[in-house]
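@channel sequence for tomorrow's demo:
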Amino acid sequence: MRKWHKYIVNYENNVRFVQRDEAFSDHKKSMFYDSNRGYNSKEEFFKVYFYNGNHRCKIYNNYLRRYLKKEENILSIGSGRSINELLLIEDGFDIVCSDLELPCKEEVLRLFPNLKFVKYDVTTFPFETKFDSVISLEMFYLFDKNTLSRVFKNVAECLKAGG
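structure tokens (generated this afternoon):
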């Protein structure tokens, strides 16, 4: 994982530096993956992580719904909390989520027992199954140029012909 800076724009106080992540454990902390806030019900989960004004997730949702098909099998790489993926799965999309780990694993599987999650590091090798589509919403900025080249090679190898 390359070093990156995270900034939060606060219109009252301008921009402030938040943190520098150098490993997944740092990234996990800065993304609040240790927090299990919002896991009392599906409704609360989507209210906290999707409908709370998270414009980025809404833009992703619109894009994914426009270009993905329910009859396709889809791999999500670097899924994190799987917010957009879970919303699509609830609507009948066939998605396998993957990441280095699943945040709040017990809580999310209790709420979403249909979630298919696989621990997968895309930097090491191609996924063993072929998919119609591969999505990744928020991880490419983490990699240096050489690692990114390997990631795209591995993604290309796990796509079906025409995927």
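heads up for whoever presents: Helices lie at 24-30, 42-49, 55-67, 83-90, 105-111, 145-157.
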